[in-house]
Inverse folding.
């Protein structure tokens, strides 16, 4: 995620593997509410591993707070592992659907714009278009800015999903004992 | 005459082959397999199947409370006094919600507790059925973990997990909500004694050798080190390890409220309690220290005062089991995560050559005569001061009683004047500050310590919050001694009104029943004390009584707890006892830096 999108306050991105059970999402969000941590975005979904869900959480926090958030998440019985990937090489993506006002005369203009952003049409109606785009927040903001003059009727955005780059890191590791958090605490 | 209390013995021999049981029977089998002998509870519709099955388990004693809050405090008191998991049980809906205060109290002070609640039938969940509440939702932020069990087959494994979670790592309360149909259904049960495996729950931690080395260097190079002994010392049974560390280094020890007793109060290196009502020399030493070795404590705001000016010269080593406590309130230089007893054992062999002679002399100098001045300044002309009562209680019980306090002024006076030399002999509600805690907690402690002399010290306000449990004392033959520090006010709030709200005593004068008659109405013993020369006889009479005995101490009405660091003020910015007290009709408070 581009740091420039959130000039203030700073955010941290966490990946957590959790047990896929009723109430686990509630436990995690209840922790954030209880401790007064503001969630910027939250994405939950199943993984390739049976019974394990993965959360990507973007939270307003400075570095100190981030360590405590991680420690509090780690304490939860249903949380299998948690990692702060903010300062690790990672890819993070949001997906957005935008319904734009567009008669036939504007379609090609919008299509050209969309090509620049690698967005695509997924629905065409005589009066509107639905555009789908995947990317980082600044790319999405850029497209939204360009489409705004045509008239955006509706827009929906997923939470960020993120993954560290490189060879390691998989749901299979989630059920293994996680690295000792202490090193994180000491580093602060 | 008190009925014989159960003695703590080894857990029942465990079952080997699987048995076909009802879910209700599994509850009691599973509890017995965890070594439970006593549960505190109250029946009701959704937990009736479990209660019905209790007749098959005569080895488990059930204590019928008068209000479920009492049950959760009793389980808490049992756990604090024994170090084992306390168990309370209640029905769904209001039964479960009445446990909530006691569960929150246990959570704040990290007390191992398992609360079992009945829940409406699983097909009714979510339908707003009679006596249905979402108790797992309600207790989510005030339990270490909780479970909703809807199948009989899950009851046994869940109770085993609940005990493991409650007692391991940083302890805490765990609630198990069991639907009525799960209690009624049949299942195969076999106790599995093998270690519980939960992939997401890994409470054990160990510091790295390099961190221990760094701690040793910091300790050796300190000129003015101070040890903070917290609740963790008691929970980890680390008193002996701490004594060894202190004997080797000579470093003085300040205690938190919940840490009292973890290090002997009469030890020459014991400074006493720190914080809001800590003695002046203790807080002064903290502000002047160059190294704080914080053991099993969490830098509560009642301990630190203003964080910006807190211990400005001190490097801080924080020995703590819970990583979420590191840097939460106070930024520390070196966190050591792990069991405090193990860490002390790792440190002690290496901390040679620490010289604190000059530093301890400096503390002694600032202490001067103030340790005795506080109590001798109270006019001993026959009037009764709470400090005198507690001081005398300490003397006439040889400092050996198990004292359970409520919350308020008397709690602070107890902390100041009852010198605890042994761990688990002061039970008090620290984090939550729950009025009404003392009587039920003491009743629970009775089952952990059948031979101890137990004294409840409570105010006239807090005592009335759970006074209904006197009937439980009478019915179950539970013997405790109750000292009511009766000043006719909600004293601590009155004190704050006097200091910070212009002396407007709003809603703090409190009228109480005649406590002597109240005791007698329950078939118990009641005594009244209005003068200091009556204290000794009353203490002895209470101890001699086979029944629970209330002593109604009518103390000075508008006395205050000194010294006091106002909430959020600098730690050495204290309100001191006006001098001399004999002229206290026109009190002048010395507010300012104590230097």
């Amino acid at each position: 995620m581009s740091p420039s999108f959130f000039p203030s306050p700073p955010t941290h991105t966490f990946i957590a593997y959790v047990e896929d059970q009723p109430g686990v999402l509630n436990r995690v969000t209840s922790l954030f509410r209880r401790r007064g941590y503001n969630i910027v975005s939250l994405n939950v979904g199943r993984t390739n591993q049976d019974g394990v869900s993965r959360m990507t959480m973007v939270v307003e926090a400075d570095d100190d707070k981030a360590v405590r958030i991680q420690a509090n998440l780690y304490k939860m019985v249903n949380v299998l592992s948690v990692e702060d990937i903010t300062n690790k090489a990672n890819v993070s993506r949001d997906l957005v659907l935008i319904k734009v006002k567009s008669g036939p005369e504007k379609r090609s203009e919008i299509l050209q714009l969309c090509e620049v952003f690698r967005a695509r049409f997924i629905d065409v109606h005589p009066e509107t278009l639905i555009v789908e785009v995947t990317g980082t927040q600044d790319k999405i903001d850029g497209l939204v800015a360009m489409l705004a003059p045509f008239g955006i009727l509706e827009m929906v955005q997923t939470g960020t999903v993120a993954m560290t780059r490189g060879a390691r890191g998989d749901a299979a590791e989630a059920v293994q004992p996680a690295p000792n958090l202490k090193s994180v605490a000491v580093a602060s | 005459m008190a009925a014989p209390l159960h003695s703590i013995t080894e857990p029942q021999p465990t079952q080997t082959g699987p048995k076909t049981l009802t879910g209700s029977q599994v509850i009691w089998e599973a509890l017995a397999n965890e070594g439970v002998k006593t549960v505190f509870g109250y029946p009701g519709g959704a937990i009736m199947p479990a209660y019905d099955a209790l007749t098959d388990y005569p080895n488990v004693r059930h204590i019928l409370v008068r209000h479920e809050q009492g049950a959760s405090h009793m389980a808490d008191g049992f756990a604090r006094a024994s170090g084992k998991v306390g168990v309370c049980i209640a029905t769904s809906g209001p039964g479960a919600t009445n446990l909530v205060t006691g569960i929150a109290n246990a959570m704040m002070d990290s007390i191992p507790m398992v609360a079992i609640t009945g829940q409406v039938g699983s097909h009714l969940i979510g339908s707003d059925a009679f006596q249905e509440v979402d108790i797992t939702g309600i207790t989510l932020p005030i339990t270490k973990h909780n479970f909703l069990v809807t199948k009989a087959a899950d009851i046994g494994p869940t109770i085993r997990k609940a005990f493991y979670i409650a007692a391991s790592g940083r302890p805490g309360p765990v609630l198990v909500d069991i639907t009525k149909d799960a209690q009624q259904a049949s299942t195969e049960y076999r106790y599995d004694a093998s270690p519980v495996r939960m992939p997401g729950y890994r409470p054990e931690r160990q510091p790295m050798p390099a961190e221990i080395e760094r701690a040793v260097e910091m300790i050796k190079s300190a000129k003015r080190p101070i040890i903070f002994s917290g609740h963790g010392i008691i929970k980890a049974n680390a008193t002996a390890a701490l004594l060894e560390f202190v004997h080797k280094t000579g470093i003085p020890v300040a205690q938190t409220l919940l840490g009292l007793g973890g290090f002997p109060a009469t030890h020459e290196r014991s400074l006493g309690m720190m914080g809001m009502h800590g003695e002046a020399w203790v807080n002064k030493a903290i502000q002047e220290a160059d190294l704080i070795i914080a053991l099993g404590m969490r830098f509560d705001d009642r301990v630190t005062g203003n964080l910006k000016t807190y211990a400005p010269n001190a490097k801080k080593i924080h020995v703590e089991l819970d990583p979420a406590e590191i840097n939460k309130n106070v930024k520390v230089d070196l966190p050591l995560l792990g069991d405090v007893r193990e860490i002390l054992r790792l440190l002690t062999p290496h901390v040679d050559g620490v010289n604190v002679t000059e530093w301890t002399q400096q503390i002694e100098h600032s202490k001067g005569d103030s340790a005795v001045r506080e109590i001798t300044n109270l006019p001993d002309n026959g009037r009764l001061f709470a400090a005198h009562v507690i001081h005398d209680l300490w003397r006439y019980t040889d400092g050996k009683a198990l004292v359970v306090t409520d919350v308020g002024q008397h709690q602070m006076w107890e902390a100041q004047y009852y010198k605890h030399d042994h761990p688990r002999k002061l039970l008090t509600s620290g984090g939550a500050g729950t009025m009404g805690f003392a009587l039920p907690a003491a009743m629970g402690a009775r089952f952990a310590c059948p031979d101890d002399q137990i004294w409840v010290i409570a105010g006239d306000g807090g005592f009335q919050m759970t006074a209904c449990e006197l009937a439980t004392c009478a019915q179950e033959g539970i013997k405790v001694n109750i000292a009511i520090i009766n000043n006719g006010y909600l004293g601590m709030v009155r004190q704050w009104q006097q200091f910070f709200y212009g002396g407007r005593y709003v809603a703090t004068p409190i009228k109480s029943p005649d406590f002597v008659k109240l005791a007698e109405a329950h078939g118990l013993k009641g005594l009244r004390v209005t003068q200091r020369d009556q204290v000794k006889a009353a203490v002895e009479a209470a101890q001699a009584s086979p029944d629970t005995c209330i002593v109604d101490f009518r103390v000075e009405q508008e006395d205050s707890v000194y010294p006091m660091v106002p909430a959020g003020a600098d730690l050495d910015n204290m309100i001191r006892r006006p001098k001399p007290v004999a002229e206290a009709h026109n009190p002048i408070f010395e507010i300012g830096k104590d230097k």
In short: Residues 152-167 of chain B form the longest helix (16 residues).
